[in-house]
Amino acid sequence: MDIFLQAMINGVTLGSIYGLIAIGYTMVFGIIGMVNFAHGDVFMLSAFVALILFLILTQLLGITNVALAFVIVLVGAMAITALWNWAIERVAYRPLRGSFRLAPLISAIGMSIFLSNMVQVIQGPRNKTIPPMFEKNIALTSGGSYDVTLSYKQIVIMVSTTLLMAAFWYLVQKTPLGRAQRACEQDRKMAALLGIDVDRTISLTFVIGAALAAVAGVLYLSYYGVVSFADGFVPGVKAFTAAVLGGIGSLPGAVLGGLLIGLIEVLWSTYVSTDYKDVAAFSILAITLIFMPTGLLGRPEIEKV
Amino acid sequence: MLMDTKTPVPGAASTAARPAPPFDAVAALKSAAFSGAVTLGLGFPLLAYDTHPDISNALVVLPRWSWAIWAAVIVFAGRFIGLMVGARPRAAKRPQQLRVPSRSEGFVKANLAWFAVAALVAFPLVMVGALGANGSLKWINNYGIQILIYVMLGWGLNIVVGLAGLLDLGYVAFYAVGAYSYALLSTTYGLSFWICLPLAGILAAFWGMILGFPVLRLRGDYLAIVTLAFGEIIRIVLINWTDLTNGYAGISAIPRATFFGVPFKDGEGGFADLFGIEYNPIQRTIFLFYVILALALLTNAVTLRLRRLPVGRAWEALREDEIACRSLGINTVNTKLTAFALGAMFGGFAGSFFAVRQAFVSPESFTFIESATILAIVVLGGMGSQIGVALAATVLIGGTELLRELDFLKRIFGDGFDPVQYRMLIFGGGMVLMMIWRPRGIIATRSPSIFLKERKAISGDMVKEGHG
């Protein structure tokens, strides 16, 4: 039971990270119907940006207050990653709007290869580790055969995820930008006729998606303390799985899917096999798409001749 | 971020259409300055600071502003020049004259494929003649065989993606099945390459059906992602099922290729001894070259033949419109499965060839990047075009091999500069540029396999859904 509780805590932590990345996939798919293959690499890039910012703050500027450093890193990484995704959309996807359906997907695959190799070339192929930001643990149970702990970094992850999700939800539901976004999602041509700048809205969608991916990147870095240029692919596919499981195009679905994938992955590694934990996630992806293509909260897609 | 320069901007596109607009230098400078500033922002932490471990293995950060500034300057200049070139009035298109092809030209054109085959057959012999046995090894092995493997894989995937219109991102799984089939069958049961080759093909086709069956209801992007997941699952199983596959370490000491049972070895009973010539290791390489050439040509011949058979026509019909296909009574499940299985079979052949050539297989060779490479070849070739795929494989694989030759760049950029590490970077960037510049691939026209009265080449744009 103690082990199960610990697995649940770890699973929710991991699931929060996947959920944050999944929102980027699901929003882009909702608005332009494209699988943004490079999103996982944008996440990896944000973790690198966070790593360098953290080192600059602690080594060159001498900031010792961890909470202050964390907030600056978070905001800085969000801004820079958002700029990156804005540029990527501008260069690699916007010229392809109106091209054939697979063109953006292939362009995104190219972008994904480009980003991971760019980071490899300019920052080196080795794993980058940083000293842990938050070290303390809280023991939830003690005296038993196994102590369930909740670490400070897990608390930070859960709290930041919840806060940002709330802010994001407010943005999409209550602001003019969110309204424009939802309008473009329903019918891009009609939205344009009603005076919405569709290109700008799509750009902003990429910017928001990247900012959330950057939050995931910062949290990932603070949780594991290590990142390498190849770390974008597998979390990217898992987050995509989360988006599909929750119903692609649905924002609450992405969060739900992320939490489920995180829980399944941790429970699978705890009780079945660590080696095959990725197989679990990939199998869920395949099974969901085959038997339940609309996911848990998605709308059915009607195919017309 | 050199790609900034190639982005067609709305301004440039519209000015090109109007007659000779004046070049607005101030606007271009502004735009270029903006691009440069964005690049500087993008490069701020990643380019401008270097991180590397110190003696105690803790990361230290060092400023490296020159990189970021250079990147910004290059983007600025590139953007400005791009705008300048884009704004230049283009010469009006001359009306196309009707050209009557001369006799000899017609003959060359009609038999282009045969000339290419003849050139390929002569290639290793010419290379050996020109460069000697040692000098030609690199050309036959790294260029000839390597490119032909990818031509074959491209043609195999072309059946699935180009003809049947099913986007498969996990093609490398079948390549892996073929390679491990040969590796395991030959090391465990001592079977020879020529027995294992068809077995590997059959096993891969079988896997193609197993994986294909559940996913065929899916369309487009979803199919792509599920095949990607399957490809990854197979790779993870290969890594973790250590009893069978020896995990990351892979299977080594796989028996080498023999000349139909006659080994390539020095001395009694070897290939050289049998034919009474002097032994040289290049003989095996040349033999392998002809084997992969024959396999690739077999793939091509089967594809071309199948396109004329009902099943091939059903593939192309399916690619164009699945619903129309179904209403005309075509069994879409069988049609898709045959495409999947055939594509997988050729992947399996190529895989078992790969194993016999390397004499070593490990899961490292079957990553997603391989699938992406093969898909890039098919897409750049202009999905569905056989010649296009061959050209794309030559350009992509030959081009990346050529990077190894660029040693002179070390003299310009210093010893730390290794062109090979930019291989995948250029590859990824090239994929993006290709989609922007020529999304229809190198060969952008299609001549239909069946036609009414006359054969008309149509633009790739006419092919629906873009699977064409």
What is the spatial order of strands in the main beta sheet of chain B?
1-2
Q: Quaternary status of these chains? A: heterodimer
| CATH fold name of the largest domain in chain B | ABC transporter involved in vitamin B12 uptake, BtuC
Global shape of chain A: globular
Q: What would the principal axes of the Cα set say about the shape of chain B? A: globular
Report helical residue fraction of chain A.
over 70%
Order of helices and strands of chain B: HHEEHHHHHHHEEHHHHHHHHHEE
Structural class of chain A: mainly alpha
Number of domains of chain B: 2
GO molecular function (chain A): L-isoleucine transmembrane transporter activity; L-leucine transmembrane transporter activity; L-phenylalanine transmembrane transporter activity; L-valine transmembrane transporter activity
Transmembrane segments (chain A): 12-35, 42-61, 67-88, 100-122, 155-172, 202-223, 243-267, 279-298
Protein name (chain A): Branched-chain amino acid ABC transporter permease LivH
Keywords (chain A): Amino-acid transport, Cell inner membrane, Cell membrane, Membrane, Transmembrane, Transmembrane helix, Transport
